Design the sequence.
């Protein structure tokens, strides 16, 4: 009985390892960290209003670009870890932040107090 149990465990272990190796090989075909360019995220500040309003956007870890069109200067908070913030100018300008940690990251304006987008970082 004991001998049978041991050999069964050995077979299961071998199968498990084989599956694991196949999985690794498959992953190598994908893109590495930071290789995937994220589409710029468009944000508009106009007349005290912000667009979008809390929309969820899928992004990859690495550089996230915001294209901000604003009628007056302001600031944006990126609730990543660590937290980041940047000021933007009036007009249309592009700003970049780097997010290395996967998770849900809220991008907020504090004036007006709104969540602009939620980045689903993968
Ligand atoms: Cu904030």
Sequence:
């Amino acid at each position: 009985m004991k001998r049978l149990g041991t050999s069964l465990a050995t077979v299961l272990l071998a199968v498990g390892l084989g599956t694991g190796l196949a999985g690794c090989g498959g992953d190598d075909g994908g893109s590495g960290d930071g290789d995937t360019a994220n589409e710029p995220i468009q944000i508009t500040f106009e007349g005290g209003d912000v667009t979008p309003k809390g929309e969820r956007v899928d992004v990859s870890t690495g550089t996230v670009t915001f294209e901000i069109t604003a009628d007056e200067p302001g600031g944006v908070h990126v609730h990543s870890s660590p937290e980041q913030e940047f000021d933007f100018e009036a007009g249309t300008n592009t700003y970049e932040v780097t997010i290395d940690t996967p998770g849900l990251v809220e991008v907020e304006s504090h004036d007006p107090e709104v969540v602009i987008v939620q980045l689903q970082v993968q």
